[in-house]
Structures are given as structure tokens and as C-alpha cells.
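Bit of a strange request maybe. I'm writing a small parser for C-alpha cell strings and I need a real example to test against, not something I typed by hand. Could someone generate the C-alpha cells for this chain?
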Amino acid sequence: MEESIPANERKRKLASIQRVTALRPHPDPVVERLQLATVLGWQVVVAKGEVEVGQLVVYCEIDSLLPGKAHWLPPAIKRRIEQMPEHKQDWFRVKSIKLRGQLSQGLIVPSIPFGCVESEIGADVTDILEIKKYKPIAFSGKFAMCQTNGGVPFPSHLLKKTDELRVQSYPHLFEALQGQPFYATGKLDGTSGTFMIDPETAEFLACSRNYVRQRPANLDVCPYWRAAVNAGLEEKLRAHPHLALQGEICGPGIQKNPLKLKDIEFFVFNVVDVRGGGQPLPLDKFQATCKDLKLKTVPIETIGERFECRSIDEVLEMAKGKYASGKLREGLVFRSWNQAISFKAINNDYLV
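Reply from user aminoacidic:
Good idea to test on real output. This should exercise your parser:
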């Protein structure tokens, strides 16, 4: 279960020691030189003979930035870097791509680099290999300055950051949800925000994923404070100071506004009781609280009494779809009713 994952394990492992668990031929018989490898819940297209089932490898997730001069990079990646413009050769971004019609997500390094050899399966080698995370530009226009991070860190001692784990990287969460009452919500393509009353100072806090955002003189330059004012969050939380709200901020100037909203809006996906460790409210109380406070929630797509998906591929297929605006949906978030288990499934059509 998610709650059994230690805090230091919840940090996304961009690169880790993993085992190749399956290897299949490319479905197109003409493409004999390619195979489909499985690592965790991910599919990676590899050259025939490059890896074997059971082999330990370094697996680099999508959105990893690999140092362009690293000696351990596979030859094919080195060749691709050499073909890039010189000013872009410092880093190579791992993306979701299609190779000969097959989805490939992540990069397998067959020969484990020096310094990682003694590591156990699952060990995080991101820092050892000097890998960084790709950070897309989320804001544009009047919000562009909000892309810069800094200031007071997120109050992690009161509640968890808003960062769901991907089902392909943590397939045991998929297994843990089997047979459990569950619900699935639409993953909105915006920027996450957390709002609460500080129990020590009684100050209203508007937070991005990693920082407390200071109230600017002009609210129109900060989507977090604009969302708070538009939804009347401070007044509502002062009436319920033990609650914190976590959700997605969407609208003009954020991620190209795929929902085609006319103004900044806040959609709640978690209501957290900050007393006693910051536990999210179960589904029934979550819905009732949002209704009482007149707050919009992320779209609840499915509510079921038993989660019975047969495979991660089935979950990923469910994640496909579009917003009402016609733009591709980012994906779905699956949760147990009691909030003990949760994971996200990103729409592969959106990624590609």
C-alpha cells in the first residue's frame, strides 16, 4: 500500500537498478532486430540481443535528463546526441516515443555503470549518475515569473506533497488495489496547489508543489493566489482550520489551458485533516466536505465497489480520453475509498 512506502522512497526514482522481467519479439515479423522488454510496468523497445530476461540493468524513466557526456550512455544514445545541435548536447531527455509502431517508455542501460554495481534491485542511482528531472515550462504570459521556485519550503511536516506515483513504476500498488472499493478521477493538466491555515501561526498558506508562495501585490501574476481568491479559500478554511485543500489549478496561462477555461479555477482532489499526520478524508467525507464548502472537485469518472482490472495495460487504456474541450486528457488517478492506496495512470496518447 502507498502508506507502507517510506517517505524517502516516495521521491521519484529517475534511474534505478531493476530486472528485465519479460522479453517479447516485435509484433511486426519484418522488424527482426527489435524486441520489447518489460521493466517494472514499463515497455521499452530494445535491440535484439541487447538484454536477457532476468538481467539486472539501470532503468531510466521518462523525463530523465541524462548528462550528454556520460561515459555509460548506450552507443545508440551517444550517436543521437552527436546529431543534436552543439548547444543542446549537454543533456539528453528520455521521452515516450514510438519505434516501428510500438510504444517505448524509458531507457535501459544494459551495462551497470561503476558505482552502481553493488546496489540492490530498486536502488535509486539518480544522483550517482548525475541525472536530473526535466521540468517543462508550466506558465506563460503574466504567470511566467511563477516558474521560478524559491522561498519557504512546503510544510511537509503537516501533510504530504501532491505527487502521485505512476502505476508502471510501482506495480505493487496496482496489485494492492485489487478487490478494494475504488474511484478514478480525471487528471487535469494544470499545476498543483495546496491551501491551508498554519496551525502554529494561523497564517493562510498558498503552496505550489515545493514552496509556500508569498502573497504578491498584484494577484494576477501568481496563479496560486489568484486561485485562492477566486474560490474564496481563505474564508472557507478559516471556518475549518483543521482542513487543508489540495487540487489542480487550471486556466489561461497554465499548460496552454487545455480545458479552455476563461479564468483561473481550482479543482480539489484531496481534503486533508492536518490533525494527526495529515490523513486525506475518505471518499464519502471528501465529497460531502466539498459540497458543503461549495468547492469544485476534479471530475470523478468512476466509482466502483471492487477494483478488478486485469492488467496495468487495461488501466492505461482506461486513462485514455479527452476533456470536454476536445483536448487529450492527461490521464486518471485511481484511489481506494479510504485513501490508503493511490496511483496515477498517464494517457500514453497524451505523452506521445
